[in-house]
Amino acid sequence: MSRHRAVYLRLLLALIAACVAPGVSVCSAQNQLSYTLLEGSTLTEDCTICGRPPLIVPLSGTFRLVFREQNPLFTTYDVQEIRFRSSGEVFTYVVTGDGTYEVGGEVALEQRMQLKAQINDRHDVELKSDYVRPQRVWPMMEIDVREPDDPPNPLQVFYIHIVAAPVREIWFSTSEGFTSDTLKRPVSSGELLSHLGRVVKKYLDLVGKLGIMPIVPDVGLDAFDIAPGGEVLFSLEQDVHSETLGHLQHGDLLSDRGRVVRTNQELTSAFSPQPPAPDVGLDAVQMMDDGEILFSIEEELFSETLGVMLRPGDLLSDKGVIVRSNEELLANFKPVEGQGDVGLDAIHVWPGREIWFSTGVTFQSKTLGAVGEGDLLSDGGWIVFRNHELLQHFRPLDYLGDFGLDSLFIVIERYVAAPSTRKIELEVDEGSGDVRIEWLSDGRVFQVERADDPRGPYVAVAPISPQQVYIDAAALSKKKSFYRIRGW
User: Fold this and answer.
1) Contacts of the segment 97-106: beta carbons below 8 A, 24+ positions apart
2) CA distance 170 to 407
3) Last residue of a domain, which of 412, 439, 463?
4) What does the alpha-carbon distance between residue 270 and residue 278 come to, in Å, rounded to a whole number?
5) Which helix (H) or strand (E) segment is 13 a member of?
6) What is the structure's pLDDT at 268?
7) Pair (339, 455) in one structural domain
8) Are residues 421 and 335 in the same domain?
9) Domain span at residue 161?
């Protein structure tokens, strides 16, 4: 290797090492939070001198909060890269702009937002809120911003209701397969999808190291999560045989690294099942940061320890406690009486303890009407995303109204310290010029960013992934390349 190339590579490696080290602000995820608008976000156009009914349309889109400063009372963020769009068919609104957001308070928690926006052809829209108490637990956000009482254009007055969460991507599998117009192929229930319209993991990517023989067709996913270190955890919809591991139950928690993380019996052992059950299935799963595993089962099970029947709609812990009963999860939806247990197919528990989930069957809500089995719900009593919204970028050609929601993983922005990185290796292929970067980290998912200058700007060169390796093809042919690895 030539001397100048060796110096270049040492500099490159040093930069990578510095950038992924914990506590370095340029890579700490808490400095910026990417938010996604949820169901319930709306834009209202009113005419204060016309007397006509206001026009209200649903909004979708994203924005970023970038940390600016903190004092003893308030933390201030810059609101950047607002990209909202109405999803109505008659009236279309496009909203861009920026502003500020404050959260804090002396006696009680308060929030305030001020925006300077462009809405369609109006460039002078100033929207703001008063200091108000948050309706959702941080990092969730719900707030109203509006034009002043004496608006510059009383013929066109805007109000925006923002419901948002720090979501980068929602990964999920469906209960039913479908044909995607955008991918030009069938998509199976064993593939892990992103709501942005890409396939995150194919079925064979997940089971490839399990030694399943004979090779069986895609049997579908029932549960999915990613553990610290990027290990992919999942369960299958039916039993299979492994030449290396033996009989694998559909209720076992498996790993894409070729091991059984927990058998179904180990997951339920703290409940002292009576009579001992061979396998009660595994429908939803989430491994918490401290190693606790939350899950749901497919069949009823009597717990001798608790003296109660455990049902498919209950959220359980491998520590032997019922985290939430099915009635507690659904209470704010006010379900119609007599529907019984509706199951629990997917879960995500937020740091503020809000729970997002899907059910095994459609149920009737007194407040919302029919709630589909493929809808993503919040235990607060609202629908986060409808099933068709999660799948809209795939454009299913089939005519099913609801394809189900069997597993769930949410790439959320961390508002605490970035995950630590223990090891980084860099290899160069002199023939091809490829640079291979590999790392070991406590994060669950990662994204590699590249820049021509160490000060940036950095641009993502690969999608978010649990893999801890990236190959930059022909990187040595570039004049300079500086890398940054973000972890969540």
Assistant:
1) 97/125, 99/127, 100/68, 100/76, 101/65, 101/76, 101/77, 102/74, 102/75, 102/76, 102/77, 103/74, 103/75, 103/77, 103/134, 103/138, 104/73, 104/74, 104/75, 105/73, 105/74, 105/131, 106/73
2) 10
3) 412
4) 15
5) helix 3-20
6) 97
7) no
8) no
9) 32-165
Retrieve residue 239's tokens: 């039993």
Residue 191 is classified by DSSP as S
Task: Look up the pTM and report it.
Answer: 0.88
Asked whether the beta carbons of 285 and 233 are under 8 A apart, the reply is: yes
The secondary structure of 319-385 as a DSSP string is TS-EEE-HHHHHGGG-BPTT-------EEEE-TT--EEEE-SS-EEETTTEEE-TTSEEETTTEEEE
Question: 444 pairs with which residues across the strands?
Answer: none
- For tokens 């254009």, the residue is 153
Ranges of the chain whose pLDDT falls below 70: 1-30, 88-89, 414-420
446 Cβ neighbours under 8 A, 6+ residues apart: 230, 439, 464, 465, 466, 467, 468, 485, 486, 487, 488
Q: Looking at residue 439, which CATH number applies to its domain? A: 2.60.40
Q: Which of 131, 165, 199 is the last residue of a domain?
A: 165
Claim to verify: residue 217 and residue 195 sit in the same structural domain: yes
Per-residue pLDDT tens over the stretch 401-428: 899 999 999 998 764 445 667 778 888 8
CA pair distance 420, 442, nearest whole angstrom = 6
Overall domain count for the chain: 3
**Tens digits of per-residue pLDDT, 246-301?**
999 999 999 999 999 999 999 999 999 998 878 999 999 999 999 999 999 999 99
